Each structure stands twice: as C-alpha cells, then as structure tokens.
Task: structure prediction
Amino acid sequence: MNDVNEYKARKEGKVTPKMLIEILAKEIEEGNIDSLAYVARRKDGYIMSGWSNMSHTETIGLFEIGKNQVIDNMYEDE
Result:
C-alpha cells in the first residue's frame, strides 16, 4: 500500500520523504555531499534531528541556511 501512496504522490508532483532520501543517496554516491544536517517529524509528532561530523557552528549555519531557503520559497510561491 505504501508504494501506491508513493506513486500517487509522485504523480501529483508532491515531494515525499522517500524521494528526498533517494535524491540525497544519489548525491552521496556521486561524492557531492561534504556534510549533512536534517530535521524530521515522525508520525507520532516527535521531532528528531541529526548531522554528520562538523562543528556545532557549522551545523547551526546549515540549519539557518535551510530555514532561509524555505522562507525564500514561500515568497516565490505567492
């Protein structure tokens, strides 16, 4: 059933967690990723985060840049 939902989401142009992981895995395999930070929300509402080996300030910087990119996309969608 999960594959059906994934197919439907892709057909509707939605970005799913699985799609993001596939894109990221490809970038990692091609050697394009130097460092990584993520935030995820589980189905039970629990928020989790993680990051690869980098300084705390670099990690915070990646999260801040990501936040700014989301804000920029909000204004582009209007």
Summary: The mean pLDDT is 91. The two ends are 34 Å apart (CA to CA).
